[in-house]
Amino acid sequence: MPAKNPAYRQETVRQEIKSALKGQTLSAKDISGAVRVSEKEVYEHLYHIQKTINKRDRALVATPAACKKCGFTFRKREKLKKPGKCPVCRSETIKEPLFSIP
């Protein structure tokens, strides 16, 4: 039986993520569905995009995650991933961080 060919892409995954984020705000889950890669892989790509984005592209804007129960916002968090628990109330109901490129 012949081997399956990977899906053909016009752009690299990172280019697709940048294109998806231009002018709109998306969560990692939304990006994952748009570019057809796992959420875990999206976070890895976002980290690299954040470090290498061109000045003409402005910057990757990350809206921090927030606790749904007490409203605590994870402003100082450097990791892009969604936190597991709120440090204030220990709730695990956390709003996902959102990303955009203005």
User: How are helices and strands ordered from N to C?
Assistant: HEHHEEEE
Helix content: 25-40%
Give the end-to-end Cα distance, rounded to a whole number of Å: 47 Å
**Number of distinct beta strands:** 5
Q: Could you name the CATH topology?
A: Arc Repressor Mutant, subunit A
Unreliable spans are: 1-5
Biggest β-sheet description? 3 strands, antiparallel
Structural class: alpha+beta
Number of domains as seen in the coordinates: 1
Please compute the radius of gyration using only Cα atoms.
16 Å
CATH architecture verdict: Orthogonal Bundle
Strand order of the largest sheet: 1-5-2
Number of helices: 3
Tell me what portion of residues adopts beta-strand conformation: 5-15%
Structure description:
The chain is an alpha+beta fold and 102 residues long. It has one domain: Arc Repressor Mutant, subunit A (Orthogonal Bundle). The protein contains three helices and five strands, in the order αβααββββ. It has helices at 13-21, 28-35, 39-52, and strands at 26-27, 61-63, 66-67, 94-95, 98-100. It has a three-stranded antiparallel sheet. Strands 3-4 form a two-stranded antiparallel ribbon. The longest helix is centred in the middle third of the chain and has 14 residues, at 39-52. The chain is elongated. The chain starts with 12 loop residues before the first helix and ends with a strand. Residues 1-5 have low confidence and may be disordered.
